[in-house]
Amino acid sequence: MMGGWTATPTELAEATGRWLTSTRWFTGDPSDGVVFTHASPIESSQNVSTVMFLVRSGELTFCVPLTFREGPDSREGIGSQPIGNIGQVQMWDATDDVDGQRALLNLLSADRDDQAGAFRLSARPIRSNFPAVASSHRLTSEQSNTSIIYRFVDPDDGAAGIILKVFRVLSDGANPDVELQQALDAAGSHAVPRQYGSVRGAWDGNQTDVAVAQEFLVGALDAWQVITGALAAGNFEVSDEIRGLGSLTAQIHRDLATAFGTATASDDAREQLVGQWRNRANRALADAPQLDQYREAIDSVFASVSSVQWPPLQRIHGDYHLGQVLHVPDRGWVALDFEGEPLRPLSERVQPDLALRDVAGILRSFDYAAGTTVRQGGDSQAAASWYEGARDAFLAGYGELSESEEALLEALMLDKALYEVSYESASRPDWIDIPVGAVRRQFASE
Ligand SMILES: Nc1ncnc2c1ncn2[C@@H]1O[C@H](COP(=O)(O)OP(=O)(O)O)[C@@H](O)[C@H]1O
Ligand SMILES: O=P(O)(O)O[C@H]1O[C@H](CO)[C@@H](O[C@H]2O[C@H](CO)[C@@H](O)[C@H](O)[C@H]2O)[C@H](O)[C@H]1O
């Protein structure tokens, strides 16, 4: 590190452990402790240096870039707070430090391609000749990873800046968020932001994306904000743009099928997917015992689609909901965050699936928007009919479904609601009534 100064893994763990285990992205068990296992220097000067660390906690590996500063001169004008210190050297989360932020972005344009070392970083630039950066700041909204926004001095072909996301929990294998958005961008799709590149990390036989950079879309609100804002204001009219969201979704599916191909839904593949739905249902019933009375009914919905005709399987978004779509001024809808559902292992998330799973995701999100409106005192009748109108408009934009696709969509909506039961029970118990209500309604007439 700077000036030959080094720190041992034990010193690092002692100095940062408390901060690390209290971050939003630390999804481990704090009682497992943290172990600094690997380090890869990013940038170093006489008294400031930035290093990318891998930190192990239980079974999980976290990506933790840190910036070190030695001496008062190196700290002058730093707006953010240090997270700890080792002797005279103070440490910052690099995503929250102006020099750390610059070093992380420089990784993309520095032609870095490590051939040796225990933790090797390689840049995979796409549009690497971007303009000079005027300012940078960390995104403050709630997110599972950590993003930094860089504003250009002058726009680059209309783009006002870059948003760079550092992936926090690493697993072996290409990150679908990077793989799918880069493939869509390369195919000329405007359904995702323009891509600037990504950084790969390799260690102990593992290889994955540690960061990705894309066009920062200025002034965008996500579809959840747009829709719940309108409903909260008492506007229950179904906007034409919902039909447009359906068409955009169909286009994304066509482009992903072209880029990655499709696979016949063989008996084995169906059995595997329906098996996953059953596992999720079992987990949801354990998390919400009040749904146990529907155990058989759930099982028979899943059993009934085993025998209908399935369309070919393909790569999909995988966690498609209204919060994953931005409404961009003068551009319209743009989809984000193709990482898949956080509760599923990566190996499942990259398997070909039913594209209708994404359709189910958005329809469930319309139900959440209606449910939230009612929870906040909105008119329940108006919210229920808005839901039906929004569903019909989205499906009209998506394209006609066959009878068997409709049956599959119903099963996938049930599966998604059951996933949400577990998600809410772990993350937001106050919200659990929304998916629980959806499961109940599905069986109300039986
Ligand atoms: N290209 C972008 N332009 C503008 N805002 C973005 C962009 N990408 C992400 N965001 C904002 O950052 C938030 C988090 O991004 P996301 O990719 O969902 O991160 P995470 O994987 O951490 O959940 C989004 O909900 C959105 O508000
Ligand atoms: O955005 P993430 O990839 O972290 O997705 C997870 O969190 C979502 C909530 O932030 C959760 O979405 C559920 O709540 C949304 C409203 O907040 C709603 O629009 C979605 O339809 C509903 O599923 C998502 O399930 C979870 O994976």
Radius of gyration: 23 Å
Order of helices and strands, N to C? HEEEEEHEEEEEHEEEHHEHHEEEHHHHH
Give the distinct bound molecules: adenosine-5'-diphosphate, ligand LMANGFYV
Outline type:
globular
Give the strand tally. 17
Biggest β-sheet strands, sense, barrel: 6 strands, antiparallel
Distance between the termini: 67 Å
Organism: Trueperella bonasi
Pfam families: Mak_N_cap
EC number: 2.7.1.175
Domain Maltokinase N-terminal cap: 19-97
Describe the structure.
The strands form 4 sheets. Strands 1, 2, 3, 4, 5 and 10 form a 6-stranded antiparallel beta sheet that branches. The protein is α+β, with helices and mostly antiparallel strands and 446 residues long. It has 12 helices and 17 strands. Helix 6 packs antiparallel against helix 7. The protein binds adenosine-5'-diphosphate (ADP) and ligand LMANGFYV. Ligand LMANGFYV binds next to helix 9 and helix 11. The site of ligand LMANGFYV has 14 residues, from helix 9 and helix 11.
